[in-house]
Amino acid sequence: MRMSRYFMPTLKENPSEAQIVSHRLMLRAGMIRQSSAGIYSWLPLGLRVLRNIERIVREEQDRAGCQELLMPTIQPADLWRESGRYDAYGPEMLRIGDRHDREMLYGPTNEELITDIFRNTARSYKDLPKILYHIQWKFRDEVRPRFGVMRGREFLMKDSYSFDLDYEGSKRSYNKMFVAYLKTFARMGLKAIPMRADTGPIGGDLSHEFLILAETGESQVFCHRDFLEMDVLAEDIDYHSDEQVQSIVEKFTSQYAATDEKHDAAKEQELGVDLISARGIEVGHIFHFGTKYSKPLNAVVAGPNGEEITVEMGSYGIGVSRLVGAIIEASHDDNGIVWPESVAPFKVGIVNLKASDEACAKACDDIYAKLAASGVEALYDDRDERAGVKFADMDLVGLPWQLVVGPRGLQNGIVEFKSRVSGEREELSIESALSRLCA
Ligand code: ATP
Ligand code: MG
């Protein structure tokens, strides 16, 4: 993308309405603009990151055997009356009337809708197990929308729902999601720590929140230091192997980790270790709830002997749009964002130091074309601007690599290759810079 044509309204000054760094940087880099409290438009640069995150989430869900569908944002109130949640949900739910005075709502989540789909289609135990998911906008009329996309009112969520015949089956689904979540967040360069979470009135021990540690997190958390060393990226996971999946879950649940609400100070004493006490951002939440929805909505299948089985369910959420902010909270410096390569809006930025110099422009155009031909996405700063402005903007938007092309270096066929993470600069021939990027 040529920056001279790109719609990327960057800001030099820090916007006064933003309290935390990710919100500031997202506004400054021209990724989002607020439409009303907690509701944002995604500008081209921001949307590219959102899509990259979505892609990783989708790939890992599919790998774990889940199937994608797409449910609507607007739901009928009557379905929520069946589960009893229409009244219970309170003012967080946006309630809407259509022209026929039928009561509708903008979905804050989809348990009722997916259960309705399931009960109308599944007949036999042979239809199970299933995990279905979608990536769809949600609306929750939060009391205090803040921190940009981190606590919005309209936000993008991936939510999956599992259907099983019994508790054991349900636990297998839960474990698959647990592992898929570890993998998903790790691919985004995040250390997301699974923490025991409240299961609310239903009880049971099958609920975990995945949190990343960050100063600006809204939750107080406590966890064992070992979590910082644990990694799943190298592991080749076979989701058909219940044993492998379970052993990973056990490894990650054997260490202490809890949010404030679940923290047990006596237990900490007993363990005799110094836990990390930190702030955390919730990026995902998995939850087994048994027959909480399948019972009132009568989601049943026929068992092998014709008996009626009420299905066991779980739900599994990832805050896709919150992740854009969370990743920035975890990865930035004084100059701007530092994107992990997996979610970066472009892999490399080409900085033409002198756009008015014909040879320089020609070399940059050529590099840009060669990268495009190799499928490498580049943001090409071809603007007629001072070098300082270009460097500042390029650091702000945080692409993993920068290729700086100036008239002097070019005379010797040399460009500067800079890593955004380390700040390290190397002088390379155009060819070797290209081969690094295309490798
Ligand atoms: P929180 O405790 O942060 O309010 P929650 O527990 O109500 O979240 P869930 O129902 O578990 O949220 O939703 C699944 C995921 O969706 C959360 O883990 C979070 O990442 C994301 N999420 C929830 N609420 C918001 C919001 N207002 N803005 C952005 N993302 C959100
Ligand atoms: Mg939650």
Can you characterise this structure?
The protein is of the alpha+beta class and 439 residues long. Strands 3, 7, 8, 9, 10, 11, 12, 13 and 16 form a 9-stranded mixed beta sheet that branches. The chain has a 5-stranded mixed beta sheet with strand order 20-19-21-22-23, sandwiched between helices. A hairpin with a 2-residue loop joins strand 1 and strand 2. Helix 1 packs across helix 9, helix 2 packs antiparallel against helix 6 and helix 2 crosses helix 9. The chain binds adenosine-5'-triphosphate and magnesium ion (MG). The site of magnesium ion has 3 residues, from strand 13.
Portion of residues in beta strands equals 25-35%
Spatial extent as radius of gyration? 24 Å
Low-confidence stretches: none
Q: Report the biggest beta sheet as strand number plus sense, adding barrel if it closes.
A: 9 strands, mixed
The termini sit apart by 20 Å
Helix/strand/pairing category: alpha+beta
Continuous helix count: 13
Form type:
globular
Helix percent reads: 25-40%
